[in-house]
Specification:
alpha/beta, Rossmann fold, 9-stranded mixed β-sheet, 7-stranded parallel β-sheet, 18 helices, 36% helix, 14% strand
Length: 540
């Protein structure tokens, strides 16, 4: 009995060391002793920390003024007045987007200016008359395009050297007025040079080479009113119809002074000797980055060999032995342009003109990036288009371009929009030429306000009525993104531009992070700068 009381007394001593007195007051002698695993002082500190985390949210640094980047997580916003250094670490809103858990996140590169960069800092007093254009040419421009009052920065830099006979490589942002910058000098030079009737087959004196039939139709639509006022014939030569159609196009009278052609159709005509380039005095490669791509390079190389390109401006002065003046125009340029041109002309005879916003994120276009799962894209697109349809019917919105990466996606998505009673047009490269003819023109005229398309509609086509571009499939290259985004916010656009991109795959995220980083640092997009700064392309 005495031994049992000793054991109980020892237990009570241990309890005094590990348990508070309040527990001893209510605990009976036969109850089990408490087991203390965490010191109470440490436990209280942990409870206070957890309570503080739940009650006090993470502070967000709010800075006054407009934003350059606005994110769902406000701590990742960047004010427009802040410029990150080239090597400064930038907190990306798209960081972690490779994980599927990031679905639903989004950010936007905001519109920080309203004026088109091509018209910014251009004096309203400067007109086309100061560029060396003759009165006859100015009168034709006023009749054909009465809304064109003052030249853009690209036209100010390009027209004078072209009139002096220089070969030009013009690299400028989309929608900056490059088409008129080469058409006006082309037509004026043809007026000063008589036509020779020594060829038995059609022999145009001006040639504009473009990568697609849609762009050929558009350039012809711009050039024909100008040519009509000057007494010059402008014709189009498009492919996809077979040799009989090509013969018919070339047999029309009077013969063309200026021919707008696609590489495939022109190559067939030259091979069959239905056309001659002996009298060519002006050669333009519009959207040259596409024409010099692998898909067209062999055809274009053959056409350049058939064209007698001048080595210097002095070679252009002989009217009886004409040589061609060369113009390359584009918004992006591939590697190796200088090596190709060195085969046909001297490198020092080429003048390179680049704009300050080349390969940059357009500051007057809002660009939103949405991280979505593949199954969420259709629902999001339908919701966007239905909201737009309500605004369009009330006259508060422009038209919409929806880009896909493949023709099959265009067709499949079209069936879904049909099910939702959303009226639209479709344009993709696998359509027969008879179906493609005029689709983009119908879209421009407003017969439908939504166009589903592939990248066939992203190069060079004028789209001043487009207000919204939706990248249903994110573009595969940085060049494609630049051209798609360039369908809005063009010179002459009456509506502000917006681009919405759906980001789904890990390779999409890689491009998005490069775009976001370039926007935050206010620098040009990576991987595109060197292609127009090769040693062979000297600035003069």
């Amino acid at each position: 009995m005495a031994l049992a009381w000793r054991v109980r007394l020892l237990s009570l001593k241990r309890l005094l060391l590990v348990a508070p007195a309040r527990d001893l007051a209510v605990r009976g002698p036969d109850e089990p002793l408490p087991v203390v695993r965490i010191p109470q002082a440490l436990q209280r500190r942990q409870e206070q920390r957890q309570k503080g985390r739940r009650s006090a949210p993470r502070p967000v640094l709010v800075r006054p003024g407009p934003l350059l980047v606005s994110a769902r997580r406000q701590e990742l916003n960047q004010p427009a007045r802040l410029t990150l250094g080239r090597w400064e670490c930038a907190p990306l809103a798209s960081r972690g987007w490779r994980n599927r858990r990031a679905s639903g996140d989004h950010f936007a590169i905001e519109r920080v200016q309203h004026e088109v960069p091509a018209l910014r800092n251009v004096s309203s007093e400067r007109g086309f008359a100061e560029l060396g254009l003759e009165p006859q040419m100015l009168h034709a421009l006023q009749e054909a395009a009465p809304k064109v009052i003052r030249p853009t920065t690209v036209q100010l830099s390009t027209i004078p050297p072209l009139l002096r006979g220089r070969h030009i490589l013009c690299a400028a942002e989309t929608g900056s007025g490059k088409t008129l910058s080469y058409l006006l000098p082309l037509l004026q030079r043809l007026l000063a040079r008589p036509s020779l009737d020594s060829c038995r087959v059609p022999a145009p004196r001006g040639l504009v080479l473009v990568p697609s039939r849609e762009l050929a139709e558009q350039v012809r639509a711009v050039a024909r009113p100008l040519g009509s006022s000057l007494g010059l014939q402008v014709r189009e030569l498009g492919g996809g119809h077979g040799m009989n159609r090509i013969r018919l196009q070339l047999s029309r009278q009077p013969p063309a002074d200026v021919l707008v052609a696609t590489p495939g159709a022109l190559w067939k005509a030259l091979k069959r000797q239905l056309l001659s380039l002996e009298q060519l005095s002006f050669l333009v490669l519009d959207e040259a980055d596409t024409l010099l791509d692998e898909s067209f390079l062999e055809l274009v190389d053959y056409i350049l060999e058939k064209s007698n390109i001048a080595e210097s401006p002095a070679d252009l002065k002989d009217p009886f032995h004409p040589k061609a003046q060369l113009v390359l125009v584009g918004a992006t340029f591939p590697e190796g342009v200088g090596q190709l041109l060195s085969k046909v002309t001297k490198p020092d005879s080429l003048t390179t003109i680049t704009s300050s916003k080349l390969h940059c994120i357009m500051p007057h276009v809002r660009q939103t990036f949405m991280r979505l799962k593949g199954t969420e894209k259709v629902t999001e697109l339908v919701q966007i288009l239905k909201q737009h349809d309500k605004a369009y019917k009330t006259g508060q919105s422009g038209t919409v371009l929806v880009f896909c990466n493949s023709s099959s996606t265009v067709n499949w998505l079209g069936y879904i929009l049909d099910d939702h009673k959303i009226q639209h047009l479709r344009l993709q490269g696998q359509m027969p030429a008879s179906m493609r003819a005029g689709i983009f023109q119908c879209f421009q005229k407003g017969s439908q306000d939504i166009l589903l398309c592939t990248d066939i509609a992203s190069r060079g086509l004028d789209s001043t009525r487009v207000e919204l571009v939706v990248n249903y499939d994110f573009p595969l290259t940085m060049q494609d993104y630049i051209h798609r985004a360039g369908r809005v916010g063009r010179v002459g656009s009456e509506v502000p531009g917006t681009v919405i991109s759906f980001v789904t795959h890990p390779w999409d995220v890689s491009l998005v992070q490069k775009i976001e980083l370039a926007a935050r640092r206010k620098r040009s997009l990576p991987g595109l700068q060197s292609s127009v700064r090769e040693p062979l392309l000297q600035q003069t």
